[in-house]
Amino acid sequence: MARMIRPLANVHEQLRRLPGIGSKTALRLAYHIIDMPEEEVRRLAETLLEAKRQIRLCDICYNLTDAETCEVCGNAGRDHSVVCVVEQPQDVMAMERSRGYNGVYHVLHGVLSPLDGIGPDNLRVKELLRRLQGDTVREVIIATNSDVEGEATAAYLAQLLKPVGIVISRIAHGLPVGGDLEYADELTLSRALENRHRM
């Protein structure tokens, strides 16, 4: 069996490091990139480098931006008294797509994971506490994922923020719209029942 030539193997290896990209997809992308005209490959490489150089963290919420503060933090029309705490910048985009939230955000850049050596000092927790020192914020919504790490992070933050004296809430978890009960796992059903509301 013929082995992959070194330059192609190098491209394959770099692409495989990206999250969600398996070996087959990385190989398909590597072949596609090699088949692209050199000018398109150069444009792709330059675009990646330019984005890496220009994108920084917002001074207030730690979301990605190309300015000192992101568009959300700089928008006077947003409710700056409500802060939604999320794990990653992509979670901000997901919340914004819902069009149901008009507050601001705080991005932790991870979750507590003792097995991976990630503790509170590895997250933007101190920065969150600093934001809450004034009297501007009246509610913090914890919107971490409902996996083990997300729940542990939510519980830690709730305990840490209680003495601050503001409202601490957690996003509801349950059945997705259009989901069938028969296919839902026990935890999802349990959460759906816990988060039920009167009609």
How do the strands of the widest beta sheet line up side by side?
4-3-5-6
Order of helices and strands: HHHEEEHEHEHEH
Low-confidence stretches: none
Shape field: globular
Described by strand count, sense and barrel closure, the largest sheet is: 4 strands, parallel
Evaluate the radius of gyration.
21 Å
**What's the overall average pLDDT, rounded?**
91
Helix content: 40-55%
Structural class: alpha/beta
Distance between the termini: 65 Å
| CATH-derived architecture of the largest domain | 3-Layer(aba) Sandwich
- Continuous helix count: 7
Count all strands and give the number.
Answer: 6
Count of the domains: 2
Strand percentage? 5-15%
CATH top level label of the largest domain: Alpha Beta
By CATH, the topology of the largest domain is Dna Topoisomerase Vi A Subunit, Chain: A, domain 2
What does this molecule look like?
The chain has a four-stranded parallel sheet with strand order 4-3-5-6. Strands 1-2 form a two-stranded antiparallel sheet. The chain is an alpha/beta fold. It is built from seven helices and six strands. Helix 1 (6-16) packs across helix 2 (23-35). Strand 5 (139-142), helix 6 (148-161) and strand 6 form a beta-alpha-beta unit. The chain is globular, with a radius of gyration of 21 Å. It has two domains: 6-54, RecR Domain 1 (Helicase, Ruva Protein, domain 3), CATH 1.10.8.420; 78-170, 3-Layer(aba) Sandwich (Dna Topoisomerase Vi A Subunit, Chain: A, domain 2), CATH 3.40.1360. It has helices spanning 6-16, 23-35, 38-54, 89-98, 125-131, 148-161, 186-194; strands spanning 56-57, 64-65, 79-86, 103-107, 139-142, 167-170. Keywords: DNA damage, DNA recombination, DNA repair, Metal-binding, Zinc, Zinc-finger. GO terms for molecular function: DNA binding; zinc ion binding. Residues 81-176 form the Toprim domain. May play a role in DNA repair. It seems to be involved in an RecBC-independent recombinational process of DNA repair. It may act with RecF and RecO. Belongs to the RecR family.
